[in-house]
Amino acid sequence: MIPLPRREAPWAPTALRELRRPWKLATFAFGMGWLLYGALNYGIADWDVGISLLMSGFTYLLASWSVGRLAQLRRPDGIGLAVALAALFAAWFCVDGVYVLYHGLAGNRMDREGNFRASLPLYFLAGMIWFYRGSLAELRRDLIRRIPRT
Question: In this structure, what DSSP letter does residue 134 have?
C-alpha cells in the first residue's frame, strides 16, 4: 500500500492519479449504474439522473480524500483541525450541499433527511473503499497478509 501523504490536497497529481486506477473506476461505474437504475425505476420524487450524476461525481472526487484526512487525524494542531474541517465540509457538500443546490435551482421537492440518511453512509463507505492506495493485486496481497494464519 502506498502511504497517504500527510497534507495532500484532493487535486494533487498523486490523488488524481489514484482516481484513474482501473479497479476504482470499475467500482465507481458499478455504483453509478446502480444510482442511474434507481433514478429511472424507483419513482422517488427527488432522485433523478441529474442528482445521481452530480452527487456521485463529487463523491468520487472527494470521498477518499476526506475519509483519509479524518482517518489520519490524531492530535489536531491548527492545520490538522483546518484540514479535518475541510474534510467534513467536503462530505457535507457531496451529501447535502449539492442536493440542496440542485433541487433548489430546479424547484423540486426535497427530502433532505431521507437523502442524508441514505447518502452519508454511502459517502463514507465509498471513501473507505477508495481510500486504499494501490492496485487491486496489491490490495489482495495486503488483505492476505492481515489474515492471521492458524
Answer: S
What is the pTM (predicted TM-score) of this model? 0.87
Which H helix or E strand runs over 17? helix 13-18
CA distances in angstroms from 17 to 10, 21, 104, listed in the order given = 11, 7, 34
The distance of Cα 82 from the centroid of its chain, to the nearest Å, equals 19
Rounded to 5°, angle at Cα 144 from 142 and 150: 140
Residue with cell 463529487: 58
Q: Which residues of 124-137 are buried (b: 16+ CB within 10 A; e: fewer)?
A: bebbebbbbbeeee
Tell me the per-residue pLDDT of 42-73, one tens digit each, with 9 for 90 and over: 988 899 999 999 999 999 999 999 999 898 88
3-state secondary structure of 143: helix
Q: Which amino acid is at 66?
A: S
Residue bearing cell 447518502: 119
CA distance 46 to 10: 29
Residues in the chain: 150
